Structures are given as structure tokens and as C-alpha cells.
Amino acid sequence: MKLKSALIAMALGSALGLAGAASAQEKIKIGVSYPTPTHAWASGMNWHAEKAEQRLEALYPDVDLILVNSPNPGAQASALEDLVSVHQIDALVVLPFESEPLTDPVLNVKKSGALITVVDRGLSQPGIEDIYVAGNNPELGRVSAVYMKSRLKEGDNIVILRGIPTLIDNERFDAFMAEIEGSGINVLDNKHANWNRDDGFEVMQDFLSRFPDIDAVWAQDDDIAIGVVAALKQAGRDGDGMFVVGGAGMKETIKSIMGGDKLVPVDVLYPPAMIATAMDVTVAAFKSNGPVAGRYILGATLITPENAESFYFPDSPF
Amino acid sequence: MSVDIKTLGPAIALILLCIVGFLLNPAFLSEGNITNLLTRSAFIGIIAVGATFVITSGGIDLSVGSMAAVIAGVMIIVMNNAVDVFGTGIATVLVGCSCSIVLGLGAGWTNGMLTTKGKIEAFIVTLGTMGIFRSLVTYFADGGTLSLNYDIRSTYRPVYYDSFVGLPIPVWVFIAVAIAGWILLNWTAFGRYCTAIGSNEAVARYSAIKVDRIKTWTYVLQGLCVALATIIYVPRLGSASSSTGVLWELEAIAAVIIGGTVLKGGYGRIGGTILGALILTTIGNILNFTDVISNYLNGTMQGLIIIVAVWLQRGDWGRRSPPTS
After folding, report:
1. Residue B139 contacts A, CB cutoff 8 Å
2. Domain residue spans in chain A?
């Protein structure tokens, strides 16, 4: 019994201590939680989050941004609890690992009174987040299709390489097909290349053996596009106005677009920098005189040689 | 060697697959596609030759896919840095390749020693190193993709894309590794020791076979095969990331088992392994050649064909009971 009461006293003491420390600083604390980067797009996001942290903290000395990344949904849920209990955050910017398992943890953060900004992947219950910032998957498909239509004529043939079978991939694909319908452009076939270069290479090799006449390729993603380009060059079918449209906004791709590449002439943006947008908007909730709550759906901008420079971040890993 | 359906099983399965492929689309048997198929099989095939030794002697190596990824990553880093010293010529490529071989041997030796001297089950050791290698490549690449310097890429590119006497170079490497593996397994004391250890480790030990040493050697051999596969993989796209070589370990193990080697050890067939690797690649290729089957069911088709191919050999309908050395 003695031990137990001693522990309780210690816990109370440390809680009081923490509360005292927090009120002494009176900083606006904003937690930023996202998955540990394990692929290029995510490490680009990590880079942009760190950039935004430096920039915003330099701009507002009383703002403290706390970046935490987690390797799995469980760890992210624990990280969210820590942000509330240890850091007592005033706002949370979160890119959930998965919607379902993180809905309750984010709801608990909201109950602590923090402002909630959700990035990219929505939660499975509506109305939890105050601010929502996301890329636009259907728009990525639609913009790609519009570009295809501008370059191709009736009777031309395209093939499609898709990502990993997921909701994101379906949204992009369905929107692309809806836009291309009725244009007279033939979609010869579509196969999953899992957003990866090796699969892009092999699937494209097989498409090239199977279809003697292909006029353009929708690769949906910059990594797949790199594999596709290697396969086209190997087969010597990279000339005759053949072109490939990827997506995301990888720095190497954007650089070659700036250089006037004919084979990959454009790219469609799905920016990892959206985390920075979310952080900006969240800070603005404390600093701006304008209202900020709401849904921010970023455009799937078509990146061309003319505007490529503003999307080029040579220091980012992506 | 008597002709029986069990040893011919993988060959029959491959021929059937080719017929199906041809019926779906005659372009399947075009020269270009066959070349693509063989070249593509080379990675898994070479790794699977090494895996045949590990599995025959009763072990397992789950780390090969991650090992390939980390070796590819380190090779790229080393070559990019070597440009300043050795220029963009053959020398830099040779430095990269030697680095690959050293890393492969080292990684294999580590797996082997931990299994034998460390007395930890191979499954656990290689599950551990699988995670370590995979996270190392992610770390080296800073979560992104490591890319080979463009100038070296043009020097190194022919290793994947060029042909010699009508066959691409990776296919020649595959053939050489297969022949060497076949001789080693069937015509040397080392091969017989592997089989003996896989059959019964205790008896092998009483028969004065240096069990630990032989088992360690199988992992070293596996590491060497991974290094060779990586040397021909890197020039293909000149990049490595955390998605490189994902699930190669399972494909290699599947190729070995489809080929007739027994998973619990004691019986191994290199020829079967080669056919197994070709079968696996052919399934993927055929699925790309048709839109009859939903994309979402690709995994189902692969799973079914693997199970049927093994059942053809193991089913109790043949004239002999399953081979037990």
C-alpha cells in the first residue's frame, strides 16, 4: 500500500510539474504525425515537413512544431497519445497510416481540445477533422486523360499501367477511363505495375511484345514511368511521337521535363509537399485573421516545361 | 535414370504453360518475348540455384530478396563514389562488382555462422537478417531511391541489355551458374554431403561429415548467387530502393520446390529449380498477355499453378513413393 501511494504521489507530482512547465512557456504546440518514410514519395513528404517546420518556427517564434513519424498504425496511435499527454498539443496535423485503426486515436486527441488537421488519407468517420488537406486522385486521372486527348486522335492506341490494387488506384483509373470514353482512343489493356520500376519495366515489355501498335502510355506514376521508358528504349520503340505520362512529381522527372524531354513531356502533380500546406493552414488557424477551417483539395496540376520550375526541389529525396 | 513423370513434372508443366500462352496470343512465342522471359528468369533463377543447396541441406534462407536490395544499394553508392577516383570506365564497374561479391559472401557467411555456430534456427536467423538488410537499404537511400551515376550507367548498361551469340548476357550468366550448380550438387563430395545432411544431420555427423562447415558453405554459396544476380540486376534500371527484390525469397523458394527439391531437405534437383524459375516467370508473363482473367486474380492463378505443379510430382498417383534420398 505504501508503495502504491508513493507511486500516485510521484505521478501527481510529475503531472503538476509538466503542467507548470507548459504554462510557463505558453507556446503554441502543434504535433505533426505521419508514417515513417519507407518509399520515395513518403521521404519527400518527410523532407517537406522538416522544411516547413524550420520556416514556420523561424517566422513565428512562439510556434513549436513537433514532428513524429511512426512505422505502423499501432505506433502512430501511441505517438498521438504521447503528443497529448507529454506535449499537450494545441493542434494536430496527421497523415493517418490507415483510416480505420487511427480514427479513434485521432478522436481522442480532438477530445483533449486540440484542433485537428487530417492530410491525404481521410478518417473513417466524418466530422472529426477541422481542416482536411488532400491531393486529388480522380483529378489526377482526369487531367492525364485530358492531356492524352490533346495529343492523340481517334483510333490511336494506349496502354495503362496501374498502381497497387487500392482505392487510390481505382479512383485514378476510373476517372481516367470516364474522361477518355467517347474520344475514340483505344485502351488496349491495363495491368497493375504496383508503383514500382521493376514491375513497370516487365509489364511494359509484355505490352510491347503483345501489341505492335502503341501510341502512348499512361503510367500513372513516375516510378512506373521510369521502368516503362527503359522498356521502350530496349525495344527501340521510343521514337515516332510515342509518349509516356506519369504522375506524382518526382524531381528527376520534373528536371527532364524542364529540359524538354519528348518521351515524358509532362507530369501530373500529386505532391508530397501537401504536408507543408497542411502545416501552413494549421498555423494560420492560430495566426491569421481569416477563417481556415474547411476542406482543401489540391489541384492535380499538369506540369509542363513552362511551369516545371516551381515544382522542382533538387534537395528533396523525391 | 529411369523416365518417370515425377522428374518430368516441371518440364511438362512448363510446356503446358507455353502452349496455353501461345493459344492466348501467338506473340507469346515471338523471339522478343522468349528473350525477355529468359532474361527476366535469370534473377530468380540464379538465386534459386543457391537456394537449392541451402534447402537440400535442410536449411532455409529468407534474406535473399533483402540481401539483393542492400547489395544493389551499396554497389550503387560505391560506384557513384568511385567515379572520382576511377573515372566512368570499366574500372568503376569492376569495383562495384567486386564489392557486390564481397558483400554477398560476407552476408552469406554471417547467415551460415549464426545458424551453425550460433545454433539459431535458420528460419529465425534469416528472418532477422531479412529485416536488417531491408531497413539498411531504406536507410542508405534515405527512404527514397538510390540512382546510379548516368555516365557509369552507359558503361554498365550492356551487361543487361547486350547479347552474345543471340542470347542476352544475363541468360549466359544464368546458364553458367546452372551448370556449375548442377556439377557441384551431383558430381562432387560437397553435393553429396549437402544431401546427406539434409536427410539426417545426426547420421551425417557420425559419418565424419563436417556438418557445420558444409552448412555454412551452402549459405556462402547462396550469398554468392545473390551477388551475381545483383550484378546483372543493377544495370537494368540503375536504381535500388526499399521496393527492390521484395518477395524474391519466396519466389526463389517456390522455384526450388516446384523443381522437385524437398523443402525439409535431403533431396535436391538443380535442373528442376531452373524449370521452376522459368515456370514462375512464365506465369507472370502469360497473365500480362491476356485480359481474360481479372487483374485482381493474378495471385490466385500463380498460387494455383504452383500448387498443381508440386502436386503433379508429389501426388500418390505415380509409381514411386516420394524420393527420400
Report:
1. no
2. 16-135+272-287, 137-268
Q: What is the DSSP letter of A216?
A: E
CB pair distance less than 8 Å for A162 and B295: yes
Domains and CATH numbers, chain B: 5-20+29-313 (1.10.3470)
Residue B296 sits at the chain A interface (C-beta within 8 Å):
yes
Cα distances from B55 to residues A114, A313, B115, B125, B194, in angstroms, run: 56, 48, 13, 15, 9
The answer to whether the CB atoms of A191 and B295 lie below 8 A apart is yes
Say how far apart CA A34 and CA A71 lie, in whole Å: 9
Q: Kindly tell me if the per-residue pLDDT of A1 is higher than 50.
A: no
In A, which residues are within 8 Å of B289 by CB distance? 206, 209-210
Superfamily of domain A137-268 in CATH is Response regulator (3.40.50.2300)
B95: pLDDT strictly greater than 50: yes
Q: Which of A36, A43, A210 sits opposite B144 (nearest CB)?
A: A43
B233 contacts B70 by C-beta, under 8 angstroms: no
Q: Does B143 touch chain A (CB under 8 A)?
A: yes
| Set of chain B residues whose Cβ sits within 8 Å of the Cβ of A162 | 295
Residue A206: its pLDDT value, please?
95
- The yes-or-no answer to whether A16-135+272-287 and A137-268 have a common fold is yes
The letter for the amino acid at A263 is L
Across the interface, whether the CB atoms of B237 and A227 are under 8 A apart is answered: yes
Give the model's confidence band at A42: pLDDT under 50 very low, under 70 low, under 90 confident, else very high: confident
Closest by CA to B163, choosing from B153, B151, B173, B149, is B173
Could you read off the pLDDT of A203-215 as tens digits, one per residue? 999 999 999 999 9
Cross-chain residue pair B144–A203, CB shorter than 8 Å? no
Cβ-based contacts of B298 with chain A (< 8 Å): 192
State the average pLDDT for chain A.
Answer: 89
With respect to CATH, is domain A16-135+272-287 assigned 3.40.50.2300?
A: yes
Provide, as residue numbers in chain B, all residues whose Cβ is less than 8 Å from the Cβ of A39: 143-144, 241-243
Q: Is there a contact between A226 and B237 if contact means CB atoms under 8 Å apart?
A: yes
Encode pLDDT of B145-169 as tens digits. 899 988 899 999 999 999 999 899 9
Chain A residues whose CB is inside 8 A of the B141 CB are 317
Give the number of residues written for chain A: 318
Is beta strand A243-245 parallel, antiparallel or unpaired with respect to A91-94?
unpaired
Q: Which string of b and e fits B177-187 if b means at least 16 CB within 10 Å? A: bbeebbebbee
Chain B residues touching A205 at Cβ < 8 A? 36, 40
Q: How far is A20 from chain B (nearest CA, A)?
A: 39
pLDDT: is A263 or B6 the higher one?
A: A263
Do strands A131-134 and A115-119 pair parallel, antiparallel, or not at all (unpaired)?
A: parallel
